[in-house]
Amino acid sequence: MLSGRTRVHAAAARLTCPGTIRQWQYKRNQWPRGENTIRACVCGVFTLCFPVSPSPLHSEFIRCSLKMVYESTGKFQLVEGDVDNFDKMMEAVGVSAEKRQKGRTLKPIIEFSHDGDKYKVTGSAEGIPERTKEFVLDVEQEETTIDGRKVKSTYKREAKGLMIQHEVQENGMVVVYHREIKGDQMHVKVTCGDLVANRLYKKM
Domain boundaries in the chain? Predict the structure, then answer.
């Protein structure tokens, strides 16, 4: 029989969830009797192992673990833009030379928030009006980018705070944004065909 602390460490090693956690609430009387393992997640892959009667330590672990996987809020500003590679990508999807030249010097600010399944992203940059968009995971929607392109985007959540956006351009090309929050930084890998740009944002 593993101790409570050992069980917490074992659970932490297997804490993975490639799906979307929409709601997960525990009450003491919901824990099954006579079982040592609880497996619960809307995607069916989230595995936690705890004793039948959770202690305050286990409850805190659950709260922190869900926050680690699910949280993607904050305000971030671009600090490293990989501008040469990003410029090639923007040229490929049809952004004009004038707008690309202006974009090379911008340090955009992006703010993320969410309420349940509804997410909100606000973007701003010097000399460009603030834009706000709202979306629900896994639902395609029309958007207008900060440089004026009309696109269709779909957002998906992956494990460990990773948000993936598929952005379909009017010319049929697809730009994919992999956004991952690590501490006070947001790492953004942008791909379009064989083109790749890595951009770094810092939490404000």
Answer: 4-69, 74-203
